[in-house]
Recover the amino acids of this structure.
């Protein structure tokens, strides 16, 4: 079996989808204010299981924007976002080409998995490994459940997948520098 791994933001898309998704949920003024607060305080406020500055900012941003939002509303915001995402046609074409060759397609991303099914609808994706958000009683808590699936954590998730599935050939698409640890695990890597 051939397996092909695709990063999502800045690889399948132009830019980061998190701000767009948050704006769908809370509106641009709230999202912009939350980003400003998170960027100012994220360097100083510890977050559970997050050691890097960018991860702390993301963790704080999620607490400020999605805490208390119904999980189904969060997923529906992904549907509203679908037509606003700017796709990288060359990478999407590569995904479809690999799928047509019989490869197993895995999207590995730091994006929140709650909105990805809507964005990936219509693409031949077999599996998504991403950042899970904690849900209690059908409400988002604003916390990341597990790990933020970026950099080393993303590579670890891919490594676990490879150990479990043992594909005969692996390909990967990602952006530098964030996806280089993941791409280093694969036979063929393309940096977008």
């Amino acid at each position: 079996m051939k397996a092909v791994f695709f990063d999502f933001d800045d690889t399948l898309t132009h830019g980061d989808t998190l701000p767009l998704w948050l704006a769908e949920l809370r509106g641009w003024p709230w999202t912009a204010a939350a980003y400003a607060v998170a960027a100012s305080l994220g360097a100083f406020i510890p977050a559970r299981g997050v050691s890097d500055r960018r991860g702390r900012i993301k963790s704080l941003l999620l607490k400020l924007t999605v805490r208390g939002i119904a999980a189904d509303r969060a997923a529906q915001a992904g549907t509203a976002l679908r037509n606003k995402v700017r796709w990288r046609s060359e990478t999407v074409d590569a995904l479809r080409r690999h799928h047509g060759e019989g490869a197993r397609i895995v999207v590995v991303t730091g994006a929140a998995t709650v909105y990805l099914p809507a964005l990936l609808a219509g693409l031949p994706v077999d599996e998504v490994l991403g950042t899970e958000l904690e849900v209690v009683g059908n409400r988002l808590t604003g916390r990341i459940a597990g790990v933020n699936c970026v950099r080393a954590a993303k590579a670890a998730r891919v490594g676990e997948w490879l150990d479990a599935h043992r594909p005969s050939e692996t390909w990967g698409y990602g952006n530098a520098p964030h996806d280089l640890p993941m791409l280093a695990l694969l036979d063929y890597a393309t940096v977008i």
In short: The beta strands are 2-6, 104-112, 127-136, 139-145, 169-174, 188-191. The chain has a mean pLDDT of 93. The radius of gyration is 16 Å. The CA atoms of residues 19 and 94 lie 26 Å apart.
